[in-house]
Design brief:
Order of helices and strands: HHHEEEEEHHHHEHEEHEEEHEEEH
Number of domains: 3
Shape: extended
Radius of gyration: 33 Å
CATH class of the largest domain: Alpha Beta
Largest sheet: 5 strands, antiparallel
Helix content: 25-40%
Number of strands: 14
Structural class: alpha+beta
Number of helices: 11
Length: 526
């Protein structure tokens, strides 16, 4: 086709967004022949390959795809039409000399380690081995049937049976007994298959007896294959993870190694297209439940917040490193009980629960951000960077009271069409604005300078928020990385009632917030 004028990652992302199918099946485009032949080195002087490589460089795919730690590669086979006009992956046009065979539709490889110079990396991978295992089992059964005699299998069956009886009488371990039982079942199945083969060979070719004998033999062989798989104790495919190493040197990228275009060996994928993908396209929304009259988050519900905080952390860091806005978090509190105030009706329980969830989520975000950014030299993100909207909601009159005690936490990571790298979004006034990077300040606020006033939550009983941060000063591009400087002075105290030594929920939240600040400062300054 004609080369687009603006060929860049934004153009590529726009093309992907055009496909609104929830699951990509065989009803999509089938450019495998034209695309695969453009990849091919047959002929060696293939100008289409150079054009495709130039386009791949512009959008970061194939040999120009380079995933970072935490990202992954997707090697995807591209369908072509077969002789009947149906989508097929049997023929690999990228290697026209390769015999048609079954290819994988896709393969994933997660980058788990990178070198300090950023030019080498190690991936963690796995792939479906069902067909491979079936081939090994079928070959083992065929070899046994080819070299053994009926008398030999019957003797083997008797020997294993005797060993099994001895193991049971001597109170052998359960694992040993189970293993012998599987071997006995295999010997029995192989003996029956040999007997069925002998009966088939004794029948007349083309007779009804031969047809029945053929069916009986095929059934006996399948049973023997099943028993062989059980007795072989092969490792599960889901346990056979392995590592591979790639580099930015010619011929050593994920795409070039997987496509394997310069050898005669069969390739795993047909007409392969390699791209970088990232986890987290389905961000969570969870409900935090409260017991009746409670404002405290239980341990079970706290695990849900851990899940939300970790996914928000991973998504936020990836967005930050790629110049995209941080995900937006909403916390919506609910409560069944209401008390009258001068301004109307205030859902006190909903407000307190929303504040409790917001505080716990903020602390968890800080902890995950500290862990995920350990050892990073550049400026680190904190929970204060994430825009958060906290609000309350009136439950439906006469509705489920348990639902009315839930606080909903949702993470939003929109990808509007006009979003490009380097742009940021300005949150509305109801949100806690993210703290943007600031240039190192030459003068610091003294203790006598009071902090800027913020809106009191009580002034907006149905929508709680932190005031937006002031616009940051521009930071010179060449400014060296500075040590951690807190942009907020955290002052907190915990007061106890006379004779009390137990922390309440609010006091515990204060301690957690202070601890997160101290931990963040200590790690950032090391």
């Amino acid at each position: 086709g004609q080369r687009p004028e603006a060929l860049d990652p934004a153009w590529a992302a726009q093309q992907v967004r055009r496909d609104d199918r929830f699951i990509a099946e065989s009803d999509g485009p089938t450019p495998g022949k034209s695309y695969g032949s453009a990849l091919s080195y047959d002929p060696l002087d293939n100008p289409r390959r150079d054009n495709l490589s130039d386009a791949a460089r512009e959008i970061g795919i194939n040999e120009h795809a380079w995933a970072k730690v935490g990202e992954a590669y997707l090697v995807h086979s591209i369908n072509a039409l077969d002789a009947d006009g149906l989508p097929s992956l049997a023929h690999n046009y990228a290697k026209p000399g390769e015999q048609d065979h079954s290819h994988f539709g896709y393969h994933f490889a997660a980058v788990v380690l990178g070198s300090e110079d950023g030019r080498h990396q190690i991936t963690l991978e796995n792939f479906a081995r069902r067909a491979h295992v079936a081939s090994i089992v079928k070959s083992a059964v065929a070899r046994n049937l080819r070299h053994a005699t009926p008398d030999g299998f019957h003797k083997l069956h008797e020997a294993i049976g005797g060993e099994l009886e001895s193991a049971r009488r001597s109170a052998a371990g359960e694992a040993q007994v189970k293993r012998l039982e599987r071997h006995l079942a295999l010997a029995d199945a192989l003996a029956r298959a040999v007997d069925a083969r002998e009966a088939r060979n004794a029948s007349t070719e083309g007779s009804p007896e031969r047809v029945a004998a053929d069916a009986a033999y095929e059934k006996a062989v399948k049973v023997a294959e099943a028993r062989m798989k059980q007795a072989s104790e092969l490792a599960k495919g889901s346990d056979l993870w392995h590592f591979r190493m790639f580099s930015q040197r010619p011929g050593e990228s994920m795409h070039e190694v997987s496509a394997d275009l310069l050898t005669n060996e069969p390739s795993a994928e047909a007409n392969p297209l390699t791209s970088v993908i990232v986890h987290g396209h389905r961000l969570p929304q969870v409900d935090i439940g409260f017991r009746e009259g409670s404002r405290q988050i239980s341990r079970e519900e706290g695990r849900k917040l851990n899940y939300v905080a970790e996914l928000a952390t991973r998504t936020g860091l990836w967005n930050h490193h790629n110049g995209l806005p941080l995900p937006r978090i909403t916390v919506t509190g609910r409560g069944n009980a209401r008390r009258p105030t001068l301004g109307g009706v205030l859902p006190e329980a909903a407000r307190q629960r929303a504040e409790a969830v917001h505080g716990e989520l903020r602390d968890r975000l800080d902890r995950y951000l500290i862990n995920y950014q350990h050892g990073i030299a550049q400026r680190r993100l904190t929970a204060a960077d994430f825009p958060v909207a906290v609000s309350t909601e009136h439950p439906t009159p006469g509705g489920d009271r348990e639902q009315g005690r839930r606080t909903t936490v949702a993470v939003h990571d929109p990808r509007p069409e006009d979003t490009t790298a380097g742009t940021t979004t300005t949150p509305p006034s109801s949100e806690a604005a993210p703290r943007a990077p600031r240039a190192p300040q030459r003068q610091h606020r003294t203790a006598e300078q009071p902090p800027q006033p913020t809106d009191s939550p009580s002034a907006h009983p149905h929508h709680l928020a932190t005031a937006p941060a002031p616009a940051p000063a521009p930071q010179p591009a060449s400014a060296p990385p500075s040590s951690y400087r807190s942009e907020r002075l955290t002052i907190g105290g915990v007061e106890f009632a006379d004779g009390s030594a137990e922390l309440t929920g609010g006091q515990r939240e204060t301690v957690h917030r202070l601890a997160a600040e101290v931990a963040w400062a200590s790690v950032a300054n090391t």
